[in-house]
């Protein structure tokens, strides 16, 4: 069994955009007003409430350009929010649809073919664990099943390194 954690957009990415940074297409984010559910913030992993301003921008959750570096539209609260921290619990944004695409990626950020599956909400943690138990999968994306938009990442929980006590075994 592989322990997993749900990972939100890094705060450094969110701060960059909140401070006037440009998106993956070198454009300024658009500002719109939420009309209610359906605008999941990728930083706090909560839905953005009706009447709140939000940023819409192209996001590429990969370290560099390459053929598998999917880029797509995502949302972010316009005002700074706290990054999702309850990583062992499925985030609230993953309860707003009946299913999501769950897909594995290799250490070199390529899609691992055959792993992508439309997955019902209740099955996301188990499928994420199953994928991450494979040696060829470094991390998993959860994406919209309807639009393929990035929602969050699932990582393995790494065991803490054992401290060298200097004791002989």
UniProtKB/TrEMBL annotation:
Q: Which InterPro entries match?
A: DUF1203
Recorded protein name is: DUF1203 domain-containing protein
Domain of life assignment: Bacteria
């Amino acid at each position: 069994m592989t322990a997993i954690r749900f990972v939100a957009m890094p705060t450094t990415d969110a701060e960059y955009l909140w401070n006037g940074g440009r998106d993956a297409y070198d454009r300024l984010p658009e500002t719109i007003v939420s009309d209610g559910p359906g605008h999941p913030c990728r930083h706090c992993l909560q839905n953005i409430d009706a009447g709140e301003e939000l940023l819409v921008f192209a996001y590429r959750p990969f370290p560099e350009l390459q053929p598998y570096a999917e880029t797509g539209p995502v949302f972010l609260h316009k005002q700074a929010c706290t990054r999702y921290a309850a990583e062992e619990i499925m985030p609230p944004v993953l309860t707003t649809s009946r299913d999501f695409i769950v897909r594995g990626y290799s250490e070199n950020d390529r899609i691992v073919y055959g792993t992508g599956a439309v997955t019902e909400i209740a099955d996301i943690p188990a499928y994420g664990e199953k994928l991450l138990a494979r040696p060829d999968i470094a991390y998993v994306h959860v994406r919209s099943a309807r639009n393929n938009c990035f929602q969050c990442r699932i990582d393995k929980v790494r065991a803490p390194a054992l401290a060298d006590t200097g004791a002989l075994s």
